[in-house]
Amino acid sequence: MKILVVDDSGFARRALIKLINEQLEGWEVTDTGDGKQAVSLFRQHQPDLVFLDLTMPDVRGEEILEEIRSFDRTSKIIVVSADIQQKTRENVMALGADYMVNKPINAEKIAQALTTVMC
Ligand SMILES: [Mg+2]
């Protein structure tokens, strides 16, 4: 399984990758802090699963989500954000996200997200 992690915070990426590592075996991860690279990395690696931050300096996660969904409907996309507003959640789900996790993340939230999108 291939996973792409997109978050402008290196700390957030490392924390997330550590939690995924504790819960999944046999996966290959690509990660980037540069939102502008996210779509080309997606095209290059064709991940099964994407963890996507919303708030990044150069590009909104919503734009990345919309662009990926314009050509791919099969990958699972989990939005990870500190934005807990209901309208944000509704918007990302309408744009084609499969699940949304609120920061700060922990093992339970990531386990729940993985279970939900993998079934
Ligand atoms: Mg961010």
Automatic annotation (TrEMBL):
Identify the keywords attached in UniProt to this record, alphabetized. Answer: Phosphoprotein
Residues with the 4-aspartylphosphate modification = D53
Coiled coil regions, renumbered to chain: none
* Record flagged with keyword Phosphoprotein: yes
Which residue spans traverse the membrane?
none
Biological process GO annotation list? phosphorelay signal transduction system
Q: Which SUPFAM superfamilies match?
A: CheY-like
Residues forming the Response regulatory domain are 2-118
Classification via PROSITE patterns: RESPONSE_REGULATORY
PANTHER family found in the cross-reference section? TWO-COMPONENT RESPONSE REGULATOR, TWO-COMPONENT RESPONSE REGULATOR ARR22
What is the name attached to this protein's record?
Answer: Two-component system chemotaxis response regulator CheY
Which species is this record about?
Answer: Seleniivibrio woodruffii
